Amino acid sequence: MAFRPKQNRILEAIRNGRVALGMEVYTSNPSLIEIIGYAGFDFYKLDMEHTRINPETMEHCIRAADAVGLTTLVKVPDLNPITIMHAIEAGAQAISVPHIKNREDARKAVSAVRYPPEGNLGSCSSIRSASYSTKGWDEYLKHHSSETMLMAVLEDKEAIDNVEEIFAELKPGVDAVSFGRGDLAQSLAKPGEEVDWDHPFVMEAYEKVLEVSKRTGIPVNAVPWPDATLSNVKAAIDKGAQICLYTIDQLLFYEACQNIVKEMEGILKR
Known about the structure:
Strand content: 5-15%
Structural class: alpha/beta
Number of strands: 8
Radius of gyration: 19 Å
């Protein structure tokens, strides 16, 4: 059986001048992932940094996504080449790497995501992403090079200081960055202070990332802030975001449950 390529709908949307729409998944439930695909989302982000999802569960999630033509973006817990290799070999079409702080980190991430000569990803043809076959291996390598996205997460002050050199290591037309407002704002808080999510440095940093994005052609992934509303999505897009991660599945379910309880309060009283 020859290699069967999958469409990267994040890249397809951007190349067609449309914003890619995604949902972040913490629950790792294959049925929910299928529903996200059937609902019309372009991609989902499977978060392995803030959850206990293991590689086997990750692969089952990717299978569910493939069944409905939904693109998988896996956020690995750290810059570990083996973890990244597991995600790619399982069929992930995009890899999000947290805490990319400088040129060296960016180069390590590129090396982990790409096969030689672009990187140092280990080769094995009997893997899910290559359709389990040596036939079509060269076609798979070509497809991987042009369709597998590295998304560098910029969420540290050091990353903002080094933003130009980080962007310089990424591949235009394929790679992207994500602005990590939460970690950046948290890192700026002093002991005893509340976190200022709209800290002046955070706002300036976001503008800086967007400016470099426009200049280099490397897209930015944004999350509607401070909550998932149409107006906040529009604001993020108007500023230049080309990838929109709408919200987290757990948060969406929590808010839906809250609304149900609130609406039912008057009815349940006897």
